[in-house]
Amino acid sequence: MRQLLDALRQADVTVVENAPRAVLALRSAGECGELAALKSERARTLALPRADLDQVQEALGQAGALQSVGKAKEALERLAPLEAKAAALGDRGLSAAVLLRHAEIQRDLGALDDAEALMHRAATEATAARDDAALARAWTALTDEVGITRRLPREAERWSGYAQAAVARLDSPIELAAPLVCTLGRIHTHVGKLDLGQEELRRCFDLQQRLNGPESLAVAEALSAQAGALIESGKTHEAVDAARRAFELARRLVGPAHPSAATLENHLASVLYTIGRYDEALPLYEESLAVMERAVGKDSARLPLFLDNLANVYSSLGRFDDAQRLLARALELDIRAAGPESSVVAQIENNIAATYQDAGDLQRAHEHFQRSLEVSERIEGPTSARLAQALSGLGQTALGLGHAEESARDCARALELLKGVPRAVPEALTCLGRAELELGRLAPAVTHLEAAVAQLEERGDAPVNLAEPRFALARALWPVSAERARAVGLARQAREAFGGSPSGRAADVDAWLKAHPVGPHR
User: Fold this and answer.
1) 520: left (phi over 0), alpha (psi -120 to 50) or beta
2) Nearest 5°: phi and psi at 318?
3) Which residue has the higher pLDDT, 52 or 249?
4) Closest Cα to residue 218, out of 249, 197, 191?
5) Looking at residues 440-457, what average pLDDT do you find?
6) Cα–Cα distance between 9 and 69 in angstroms, integer?
7) Which of 123, 121, 44, 51 is nearest to 85 (CA)?
8) Could you give the count of Cα atoms lying within 13 Å of 131 in the half-sphere of its Cβ?
9) Whole-angstrom distance, CA of residue 149 vs CA of residue 177
10) What is the number of other CB atoms lying within 10 angstroms of the CB of residue 502?
């Protein structure tokens, strides 16, 4: 507290912008000073020279205060000599605290490899000190870093098991359990374990409310995470409401120019983009990227997500050159931060492929989808739900390149992997239905396409997302005389939706309608 007050007394623009977040991040009295030391097995530390201990703890607090008000580089300078001083005192618990703070600052600066290495060292020091609170923090930080930032869920599961064991050994674990539960909820949602993810995120929200009250940034972040699980489950209206409330709460607490508010603004934009509301998503994406660039610099490893999301909406609006420019920048930053073999790189490759697909360059799209698939298989194995996105893309591009059997194979495999991810199922159903249609297998084509249209209509998806399955279903139904009026009606719905899309599909529908005349749709 004293160090934070010192930072606030010397406030500049950056400090003022970040002061609300710093205040909200203060820990409870139960975690302060000698109380924490007395509760641990580090009571021997109290016998060490008091002045030396106070000096290290004072500097550690100053570094934390500077970090919380957005001055990460200044915090790093203050922290630099502390590791050697803590080691000289022989206090390994204090060393763990210094290393973990160092890791947090390096992560804020985008040095992800350095951050992860420091987290491992912090865990080693905390183990030697028999400090379960420090162990829980270190292993939770590793779970988040590995599972969320690097998208390696199997490795994250190992660290989360250690963190859970450390939390279970504590008398009052809620303050350490909450961030772990929140992290696990997000990881399980990412890998398609939606029921488990939603259960954990509901618990995360409840824990954060108990710890911080309803008007807190932690609650806003928990609400935004819930929105992500809702959109993956196809609950679009609830997802938009949750994401909007999260952003509005963060903006009220820390202001719209704060990185945390920008992150939640970006997530709101992603929810809107997912349901086809591109014009609403675009300004939110652009604004949140600009805020983050000012906050962390244009070369930070925190930027690829923002670049990637903005590129997606540019591509959907036909601005393909702008999209590819942003994706190339995101790929460079991700490779620099996580190496060429990572899930974040696989995701960027997938999005580069989708942009080429939207632009009509199917061969290059197919090549990038293949790269995404290969990286994902090496990292996560052949049964990960994350592979399905690349497989579905491969199936679509193979169909466009005239390889219907290959398309059917890839789309069928994608559908099998997506059983636990209802949000993505209609795309795979559409892919498989179109492949079956091309192969002349009308009965399975109709089955898959009817299911895709029904699922999209049930969750209220945007008309543009329904256009492709409706047009394919129209073509599959046409050979049945009794279904021709419905087929034309579906094609007309698709034509109206394609009219606002840069894909050029409207002309394909016009040609089909001209070649398949029928009386007024009933």
Assistant:
1) beta
2) 85, 10
3) 249
4) 249
5) 95
6) 12
7) 51
8) 28
9) 20
10) 15
What amino acid occupies position 310?
A: L
d(CA 403, CA 13): 58
For residue 518, what is the DSSP state?
Answer: -
Q: Distance between CA 333 and CA 347 in Å, rounded?
A: 13
DSSP class of 149: I
H or E element that contains 361: none
Locate 200 and state its tokens. Answer: 């954990």
Asked whether the beta carbons of 346 and 386 are under 8 A apart, the reply is yes
Output the six-digit token pair for 313: 């909406």
Spatial separation of the C-alpha atoms in residues 491 and 290, rounded to whole Å = 41
| pLDDT tens figures, 170-225 | 876 788 888 889 888 888 887 777 788 889 999 999 999 998 899 998 999 999 99
> Which pLDDT tens digit goes with each residue over 268-317?
999 999 888 999 999 999 999 999 998 878 888 779 889 999 999 999 89
The answer to whether 115 and 134 have CB atoms below 8 angstroms apart is: no
Beta strands in 189-327 (DSSP E): none
Cβ neighbours of residue 382 closer than 8 Å, sequence gap 6 or more: none
Q: How do residues 348-399 score in pLDDT, each as one tens digit?
A: 999 999 999 989 999 999 999 999 999 888 877 787 767 888 999 999 999 9
3-state helix, strand, coil in the chain (%, to 5): 80, 0, 20
pTM: 0.70
Q: How many residues does the chain have?
A: 522
Spatial separation of the C-alpha atoms in residues 202 and 223, rounded to whole Å: 9
* Closest listed residue to residue 365, CA positions, set 376, 377, 378, 355: 355
pLDDT at 153 over 60: yes
